[in-house]
Amino acid sequence: MEELAKKMGVPEKKYQKMMKKGMDSYMSLAFPADELRPLTCDGRTQRERGDLDAMLGNYSMTLIDALDSLIIFKRKAIFKVAVSHIQDSVHFNKDLEVSTFEVNIRILGGLLSGHQHAVKLLPKYKGGLLTKALDLGERLLRAFDTPTGMPRSRVNLHSGIPKGSGATVTIAEAGSFILEFGMLSVLSGDGKFYQTAKRSLRAFWSRRNALDLVGTTIDVNTGNFVDQQSTTGPGQDSFFEYLLKGYILFKDLELLDIFLSAYAAVEQHHSFEGFTYTVDMNKGLMMNTHLSPLACVWASLQVLIGDVSSGLRSVLYWYSLWKKHDALPEVYDTRSQSPTQARDSPLRPELIEAIFYLSLALPGDAAVFEMARSMADAIDEQSRVSCGFAAVADVTTKRLDNRMDSFFLSETLVYLYLAMAPSDELASALPWPLGSSVFTTEGHIFPLHGPGHEGNTGLEASLAAWDRTLPLLGAEAPIATCEALSPFERVAVQQRCRTKYLLTPSYQLQMVAETTRRCRPQEVSLLVWTEGLPPLRLHALASSLGRAVAALPLLHHRLLEEGKAAPRPDLGAGEETEQNSSCGVDSLAGLDSPERKKTPPSAWPQSLSLLRLDLEQSPGRMPSFSSALRLEPLRRLFATRFLQAADPLSACNDLLPEPGRTLQETYGGRLVIISRGGCLFVQKLLRAQQAGAAGIIMMNSETYDQRLQVMTCPNQERGGGAEVRVPAAMISWSDGQLLLQRLRQGPLAGTLFTQH
């Protein structure tokens, strides 16, 4: 990287000089105010910009927000002074109404990250930042005192929910507490913070529609969506981010399960070329052609989940927009190919963050380095002023704004540095490995805790204990309904849209209409086992259900903790080729291992739904999840479920729970065995799905026995089975009898997998 920096003509310490300029300007001209005003060379001490100032409270916000940045840029002396000032002079018992979300990500997150750095670096540190974080966390908790458990967007730090405050909150505001609140629970041992954040997230996700989409705003009193827009930009961006990062940080499988559903829905309904557009949540159709730089977070998630090629494509699309003005306006219209009236650019970090993740996935790549270099140059040239760095008020005229947001120091400059710094600098940038850290949506660095990492080794058990106090998510799972299309939109399917750069509803519908109408069967295997008996491997035929999910190279870190996988040099090494992603029968040997047989069924993971089988691809194309099945721990992580026989077995009437148990407790998260005959396949599958089944095993009739068939054809005329969202597979009558016999002998677990 050092040689590349010299070759590209980049002064090696440029990013450090920018950080010094920004931080020194704040400390000398604005401190202890919350933010620097770089054009007037003073601090922002009063609220004068409406919602933009909703997080201000005269508690040195920029300093708290940038605590870990000081460590990364080796400003330990200022860090030590900052910790002392915050412990002695910052207080939150203020009669002040603030943004619950912004104070959480900027201040609470900064305190928690700063505390963990101080523990490692300051020998005389006594935990004062954690004390402040606990005090602030308690004050923020009051915002969640609502009928649904979702927070109010505003909270008074002294008295709680303000009188007459609005009940509408964005999904990002309701779903972006799990990292900070979860870490506060880990460090304090008090699970109520984690529980509160998880309950809020579950509250709105349980109200998603059949497309796995949610609206942007929701009423915290009624639980009704206020608008019908679904987006990856403002109002929802950090919700997606916190699902995946929450799983990585806390090993919470439910967060990964929700993320995979949400990820698949975005890829299907929002994505077009390299962008993700706002769509109608009920129809999955584009509502406008506006883009916000906050939506760049999707590129980061694509890289983190292992789809590096898609992440690179998204970054290149966004970078092409950035090159138009050497900045990204707050709203850009791809139809007019120009900014809207929102032409300002507050120097946001989202695109730079995605470039940073690409630099990890593609180490030494000159194109990735050049993007980071050119962005650093542009920011330095157009935003540097005598008193710091000023945001751009109008990207078309380069007029500057009298603001330097705290995230410029906590995120923007940090990601620029991490994307361009030499490898030896990165190795010493933090007191723990960069690869064992998670960045919050505000750029705060949390080290991984739990087995195999420094910190609380009882984290997983604690999270499980806290989680048990929460209601099961499946209890509020939405009942799927048919896609809502107007008569006009149905007619539009027949129209030919030739627009090159614009994805219109008619073009989307045409794409759906032209997908293959073949009801292609999918050969799968069902592996079942119980303690004390050899496993059974049964042949099955899966129906055309569900959406594809990507393989997850990031999971190999979890496997390393169990000693199950060889280490990989970097994220990019997790990319599987078509040749080595095939999963033959030989790769299943790990399921029969003595170590596996020692593990009681009660210890197997029960949190994730089955792989969503993508069966509407072109013939001969490898399902995109198949590479995730190569390693036994991955296969177990995704697909292991207990089996449960339906009552009645035909499922032609409403399913009945076991005595003393609820319907959800009986069938929730299980593979439900159903017999063929008596009513339509779709009716059987929907009854099991609405009871919370993770998947369905259909036992053929004795008459047909080995003659298996596909049960649903969602792309056929009338879309039979389009409402079914869980995997289903048919087995022979004789195999079904064997399963029922085994089930009567004790608990039975099963895994569905493809035979590729």
From TrEMBL:
Spans annotated as Disordered: 565-604
Principal localisation: endoplasmic reticulum
Domain spans labelled PA: 666-739
Subcellular location: Endoplasmic reticulum
Domain of life assignment: Eukaryota
EC number, as in UniProt: 3.2.1.-
Enzyme class: hydrolase
Key words of the record: Endoplasmic reticulum, Glycoprotein, Glycosidase, Hydrolase
Classification lineage: Eukaryota, Sar, Alveolata, Dinophyceae, Suessiales
Family: Belongs to the glycosyl hydrolase 47 family.
Protein name per its UniProtKB record: alpha-1,2-Mannosidase
